[in-house]
Design goal:
- By secondary structure, the chain is an alpha/beta fold.
- It has one domain (12-204): P-loop containing nucleotide triphosphate hydrolases (Rossmann fold, 3-Layer(aba) Sandwich).
- Helices cover 39% and strands 16% of the residues.
- The chain has 8 helices and 8 strands.
- The chain has helices spanning 5-17, 32-45, 58-71, 98-103, 105-114, 136-149, 162-165, 172-179, and strands at residues 21-22, 51-56, 76-78, 93-97, 119-123, 154-156, 190-194, 200-204.
- It has a 6-stranded parallel sheet with strand order 1-6-5-2-4-3. The protein has a two-stranded antiparallel sheet with strand order 7-8.
- The protein is globular and about 55 Å long.
- It starts with a helix and ends in a 7-residue tail after the last strand.
Length: 211
């Protein structure tokens, strides 16, 4: 039986839902928005979280996430000013840019505290914003995101692995520490290898998957 890319994406989504923390390394147009939305809706429907926060670049929020939610009538709130944070309700997807996370950090931290950290973070296009980057402004944006959401129970990261695949100087210890992942729960979960043609690949190690 042929194993299609859609089958792989469905399987990856199922694996993500069996863990509190997950990351998707899919190419552009492969369905990261759909998968992230599905995972958020699952967490909301099963009362595992009260809100789903999508943090991404302004262009991604405006051209991908917001139109997608509007088209499929998924409850969401695009945060454009501080007052918008007072208009979010349980069950909402909260769409916010990295810059506004930094500017509204205190208000966001208050929401996280009031919700007893029952939020899910979807950190989209994360490879473009890292506290490990040399750019000081980029680092400030990511550090603000970590200050707000590092303690959340559920996190979906998603393209940050691109840097690792390209062989750039970053360790899993740095990656997981940056995003607040508990490394001891992920040791051996993923490792980098190569296919028969020498192309880099990510492989799942021998990890326990919940039934």
């Amino acid at each position: 039986m042929e194993f299609t890319s859609r089958d792989k994406e469905r399987n990856d989504t199922n694996l993500c839902l069996q863990k509190n923390y997950a990351y998707l390394h899919w190419s552009q147009g492969a369905g990261k928005t759909v998968s992230g939305t599905a995972q958020g809706m699952y967490r909301l429907a099963h009362e595992q979280t009260d809100y789903v926060v999508v943090v991404s670049s302004a262009i991604s929020i405006e051209t991908t996430w917001a139109p997608f939610f509007s088209t499929y009538r998924i409850p969401h709130r695009v945060i454009k000013k501080r007052a918008d944070l007072r208009r979010v309700f349980p069950g909402d997807f909260i769409l916010i840019t990295l810059g506004r996370v930094k500017n509204y950090k205190r208000q966001i931290q208050k929401i996280v505290k009031l919700a007893s950290r029952r939020l899910m973070l979807i950190y989209d296009e994360a490879q473009n914003s890292s506290a490990l980057e040399e750019n000081e402004d980029v680092g400030k944006l990511t550090k603000a995101t970590l200050a707000c959401f590092c303690s959340l129970k559920y996190k979906l990261l998603k393209e940050r692995m691109l840097r690792f695949l390209k062989g750039q100087d970053i360790s899993f210890e740095d990656l997981f520490a940056e995003m607040g992942f508990e490394l001891e729960h992920h040791q051996g979960a993923v490792f980098k290898g190569h296919d028969d043609e020498g192309h880099p690949q990510l492989y799942w190690g021998r990890q326990q998957i919940a039934a």
